[in-house]
Amino acid sequence: MLEHDVIIVGGGLAGSRAAVEIARTNPSLSIAVIAKTHPIRSHSVAAQGGIAASLKNVDSADSWQAHAFDTVKGSDYLADQDAVEILTKEAPDVVIDLEHMGVLFSRLDDGRIAQRAFGGHSHNRTCYAADKTGHAILHELVNNLRRYGVHIYDEWYVMRLILEENQAKGVLMFRILDGQMEVMRAKAVMFATGGYGRAFNTTSNDYASTGDGLAITALAGLPLEDMEFVQFHPTGLYPVGVLISEAVRGEGAYLINCEGDRFMANYAPSRMELAPRDITSRAITREVRAGRGAHRDGSPGGPFVYLDLRHMGKEKIMSRVPFCWEEAHRLIGVDAVKEPMPIRPTIHYSMGGIPVNTDGQVRSSGDGLVEGFFAAGESACVSVHGANRLGSNSLLECVVFGRRTGASIARYVENRKLPSIDEQRYIKEAKQQIQSLLEQPGEYRINQVRQEFQDAMTDYCGVFRNEELMKQGLEKVQQIQHKYSQIYLDDKGSCWNTELIEALELRSLMVVGQMIMTSALNRQESRGAHCREDYTERDDEKYLQHTMAYYSAAGIDIQYRPVTITMFEPKERKY
Ligand SMILES: Cc1cc2nc3c(=O)[nH]c(=O)nc-3n(C[C@H](O)[C@H](O)[C@H](O)COP(=O)(O)OP(=O)(O)OC[C@H]3O[C@@H](n4cnc5c(N)ncnc54)[C@H](O)[C@@H]3O)c2cc1C
């Protein structure tokens, strides 16, 4: 059996930042980072626009309090305010720390870190490295993993959390290269496994964002929090869904409909294109529904609106958002200097996740904690984003709560022993599970079942939701789940069996999908990204609460947990 003091599953920003903190706090600890991709291929590398912190380099009137207020208002008052206080207070410090590690941020003329405008933020506080911020930060963090002697298990797939009597003891995983199966035990296990964008058919997320960590947690009998809050990013490039960063609007681009109108004037007159994402995504969907979207030939009534950069000029476009220009040019042949880009909302971010306290320790219920189990980053819900995340607050969450969770793990393992595990039992069960997937005499192909599932999630639980639609959706997902038990895999081998990985990932997506839809069906109000056509108002009396969803084969049990309010009383949210 493999063993380390600490196991971190996930080599993105949250997992890498936690590993660095553990090594800095106690260099004698043995740390393993496990990732199904190479760590620098984690989705964090694709982050474009930036990371928020009230450094006041551009806007001296900014403060952590202003950042906290914007975050809480953006969350539609569902964020836990103690967590938001930590996020925004520690932000300047973590950004400076990244700079000291060597991250190449874009600069002002006087050499200080540059800061740009972002949706829902009342001050220019987003620090960036052109439009490749995630790339700049992740590369430096992964360099540091090497420097600190962290053991990297790249291209290992974690299948199961070993949880016994409310204590996390290790994980079961296999090496993608040759199928070798191993149990790894540790004094503490941390999940930093990212989001689940692939549960939907149009997403900005990479192919590996399949919600594995969430599904594994739910299958171990632990709750998932606020799963109904799924973020649509307003500007996914049509038709591919690839992200055009909010930085483009931060730098001054317009949203226009097929009539050439800047329609945001009708939805958020004070913030226009820089309204929060939930409001902007709904505005675009409403324009399209009203027939003011465009077709590729420019005629009205089509499925997308435009993001117009033309007035910004070539020089600004090429120096501030060169990657976005290149994406549109390479993927759909649009030269954004001369023509507007076709865009529509695309699934982008998971506000909910594995419930944790502000030290990153996982909650077993509304008031209990799991021993030895921690989580941070997009897979966790601490909850700083509540019902709607502001752009550039996610990289920040990964770094602030990655660091805090790392520090608390280093303290936690001090007086703990390695747990004992019946290794053979877990290996035998996992081998049986894989064997039956490989051998089942099925009739469906994996991509067909996955497509059907992704279409169902998009059609029945999209930007606008209602009871009838979601009930149909749940039935549909159950039918698809039945088909999953009859999938047929061509590849029966153990060397780089990507088809098998896809089958396991689809299982994760289907668990996550059911948690999203059931949580959404139970929340009979509209709040942030969760917009119900049958309950159009926010209902603080009943639903100023976090959803805690418990998965079991028999069905999903929904409970609620109170929101922590310390600074800002809930108000109507207007922009
Ligand atoms: C295109 C795009 C642009 C973005 N731009 C911004 C931005 O400008 N600013 C901002 O604040 N946020 C942005 N975001 C959001 C932000 O990038 C992510 O929320 C954040 O990077 C997530 O980091 P993470 O460490 O939680 O997970 P990830 O970076 O997704 O890493 C997950 C890790 O878990 C591993 N893993 C998962 N499952 C398994 C398994 N079963 N076994 C082993 N390993 C596993 C993966 O291999 C990977 O290493 C953007 C997101 C996207 C998609």
UniProtKB/TrEMBL annotation:
Required co-factors: FAD
Keywords: Electron transport, FAD, Flavoprotein, Membrane, Oxidoreductase, Transport
Organism whose genome encodes this protein: Plectonema cf. radiosum LEGE 06105
Chief location bin: membrane
Membrane topology label: Peripheral membrane protein
Protein name according to UniProt: Succinate dehydrogenase flavoprotein subunit
Gene3D superfamilies: FAD/NAD(P)-binding domain, Fumarate reductase/succinate dehydrogenase flavoprotein-like, C-terminal domain, succinate dehydrogenase protein domain, Succinate dehydrogenase/fumarate reductase flavoprotein, catalytic domain
A Gene Ontology BP annotation from the UniProt entry: electron transport chain
Compartments where located: Membrane
Catalytic residues as annotated in Swiss-Prot or TrEMBL: R277
Pathway the protein takes part in: Carbohydrate metabolism; tricarboxylic acid cycle; fumarate from succinate (bacterial route): step 1/1
Domain of life: Bacteria
GO CC terms in record: plasma membrane
Family: Belongs to the FAD-dependent oxidoreductase 2 family. FRD/SDH subfamily.
Domain FAD-dependent oxidoreductase 2 FAD-binding: 5-395
Keyword Transport annotated: yes
Matching Pfam families: FAD_binding_2 (PF00890), Succ_DH_flav_C (PF02910)
GO MF entry, a single one: electron transfer activity
